[in-house]
Amino acid sequence: DRHPVSRPPFVVAAREARSPHPHTSIHFVKVFWFFSLTPARDWISRGFSSRRWHEASCRMASGAVYARNCIAKRCGLLDPPDVQSTRATIIRLTRLTDTSLIVHWFTETQGLIKTVAKGARRPKSPFAGQLDLFFGGEINYQRAERGDLHALREVSILHWREGLRRDYTTTLFAGYCCQLLECAVEPEHPDPDMHNLLDRALDHAAAVEPSLRAFRHYERELARLLGISHDQRQAHLSLQDALGNLPSSRDALLERLAPSGDLGSSDCGNHR
Q: Fewer Cβ within 10 Å of end Cβ, the chain: N or C?
């Protein structure tokens, strides 16, 4: 017989795997399994260096993982991505790149979240015309494995609220409602009552011109939902104590909403 080294490696391993010694049998059964996945002629021509073994094992491992995932995907065995659907309202937009946006939503089931809308600034983007301040509707987003910046998948706008852009005072009122709410809630903490309050405030301002009465009602309702309202104290003072400084747009909004001399002394200079 020829020298064993000249034979194909998996043949040598198969023969020696039948050795009566238990340790030798276990060892060479593993070797036989490894060599049987690779053509014998490749191992004879390339030699048996440890580097070759490592490269070949890495290639086989990656190929096996790819094949396994393809089969599992076809059979429906892979876990689906963590895609969630919820009602949401856009409260802020931030430019991420020349073509993408970071969209801040206040959602009904997940509270305050941030999503990346990739390619939203492109003319032919599926998000074109659907991402603007105060828009509301249904969204689908995929949760990030790390961090709080999720991936936006689909948007279906149901409330365009075009009336919020009829004049600067109305837009300022809507912006203040969103800013104050953002100061009062924790990220990704669901609060359906807060979501309902914001939607009612924006819908009211889109339908009729905002007034000082609507402005104070919004602050009272927000203080009530936070559990900090007091009968003998104005709502903005309770909010200031609980949240710190209120949004700076409150001063300009009060000047536009309140007739001259209509503001009480406690509402002048104490809301900062």
A: N
Residue 157 bridge partners (DSSP): 137
Query: What is the residue type of 17?
Result: A
Closest CA to 35 of 50, 14, 55, 54: 14
CA distances from 29 to 23, 38, 133, 174, 216 (A): 10, 15, 66, 73, 80
Segment-wise mean pLDDT, segments of 10 residues, the chain, 272 residues: 46 46 45 46 51 58 60 58 90 95 96 96 92 96 92 95 96 97 94 96 96 96 94 92 94 86 47 44
**Exposure of 139 by Cβ count < 10 A (0-12 exposed, 13-18 middle, 19+ buried)?**
buried
HEC assignment per residue over 86-149: EEEEEEEEEECCCCCEEEEEEECCCEEEEEEECCCCCCCCCCCCCCCCCCEEEEEEECCCCCCE
- Here the tokens at position 99 are 């073509």
Assessment of whether the complete model's pTM goes beyond 0.90: no
Strand 149-159 relative to strand 111-117: parallel, antiparallel, unpaired?
parallel
HSE value, Cβ hemisphere, 13 Å, CA-based, for 157: 15
- Reported as type and span, the H/E element at residue 254 is helix 249-257
Q: What gap in Å lies between CA 62 and CA 45, rounded to an integer?
A: 23
Measured between alpha carbons, how far is 198 from 134 in angstroms, rounded to an integer?
10
Nearest Cα to Cα of residue 89 among 105, 103, 104:
105
Structure tokens at 62: 């990656």
- How far apart CA 120 and CA 95 sit, in angstroms, is 10
Euclidean distance between CA atoms 218 and 178, whole angstroms: 11
